[in-house]
Amino acid sequence: MKKKKPIISGDSEQKANKMIKLVKQANGLIEARYNFSIWEMRLFKTMISLIKPEDQEFKKTIVPIKEVLDEYEIGTSGFAYGLVKEAYKNLKKRFVYVPYVNDEGQKRLQIMPLFTLIDIPLEIRDSKDSYLILKFNDELKPFLLQVQNRYTLYDPIILKNIDSSYTVRIYELLKEYEFRGEAKIDLEEFREMIGAKEYDEDFNVIKDTFKVWQDLKRYVIMPAHSEINQKTDICFEFEPLYENKVGKGRKPVNGIHLKEIRQNPNRKSSTPKRANKKSNNTIIDIESIEEVDTDFQEVFSLVKEYVSETNVKKWLKELPKEQVIKGIQYTINYIQAGNKVKNIGGMLNTMVQTPNLFDKYEEKKTKVKKEAKRQEDKVEKVAEKKQELQKVWMEFKTKEHELEQRLFEQDPSLKQKLLDKIQANSFYDHKKSLEENLKRESIQGLWVGNLMIMFQEYSDLTKYYDARIKMIRDELVVLGHRE
């Protein structure tokens, strides 16, 4: 059997190992402040996974784009290639902020760019020949090379199943504190760590989202809790930490307690339990009959009150086992239907010797069971589809929000331009405040529509998720569900 090619071919001097590559990074980098999109995160962690334990210097690394796309199973369309190229272009501008305390006890912040070299193709072709060349910034050596103390290790393929960069950052924090089982983190620090609050290279705040605990919980922590507990090797619970404020009234949330961090028991393989065999002298379940051995004692124990051993031996000697079971089943179903039988043994003897027996009672029971199962499956599928719809919607809103923030970052005047266009539209109600207007569906539609016209990337994102949401809703309609 051919070995699967590694996700990365290798650096400019030497081919990469074909062994499983893990992400190993100092905890200082885990706790650092940076905000990446999910694709930027995946590619950053892929680069880290290429570092070998013996490496003492960062090397130029060749990254075949097709292999990255194959690893994450998103196809090799021009749009997919563009995702990778755009992610690396953005990584070129990203900085990592590492808070630390120096020898004099002074709190300081180290600001570092990620890469010193990013070499990307100017034309993205749907071809196996497209690749990137990258090299980490040497200032990151203490965090990524020859790391011996306070480090976190995990398999980067876990990112294949996670769709949010916030979730990835929370997962990394959980892996760091897994040995301890819990962590209590200041709320502002937590928001900075996961990228909800972001700074530029001059430490000016350029992004400040989810400032309210309820929003952070609803849009970031709850989805991360669900994804991590369902899809990764660990699970956790959480609760808010409140300010020690004297007096009555609601106390503000000033931290988060990540607790019960442990190996995920749901990720372990489970072995199906062997069914128990049961027998009853008068009323029996045909499923238990089908599980018994063909041995005489098994069959005789089911009918011994009505038929002699000689008769049962004769049945098993002269007749197919399936026919014997079907005759017993028919007799049981007939009696359970309320019919009176004076000579049960005689009926059993007649039924087991009747080939191709049509059991209308079993047919009716089967139809009822099938219908019940169909309804049960339908309810289950509706629940699954509704859950899928909610997940896709939340994923869409998160990515939409991330894209908007990036566009506003690239053009600080963009937000005001959008507001000016909306306020000039006839749908805008000048009797209401801007905040009230922005909550209206018609105004939200104008906001999205303008962004779709102005930016192809925004239009592609919206159309992609609109199609996914429509498909799920159509499937719900087919299942008979009406929203």
From TrEMBL:
InterPro entries: Initiator_Rep_WH1, WH-like_DNA-bd_sf, WH_DNA-bd_sf. The keyword Secreted does not apply. Residues 23-175 form the Initiator Rep protein WH1 domain. Pfam families: Rep3_C, Rep3_N. Residues 358-392 form a coiled coil. This is Replication initiation protein. Belongs to the initiator RepB protein family. Gene3D superfamilies: Winged helix-like DNA-binding domain superfamily/Winged helix DNA-binding domain. It comes from the Bacteria. Keywords: Coiled coil.
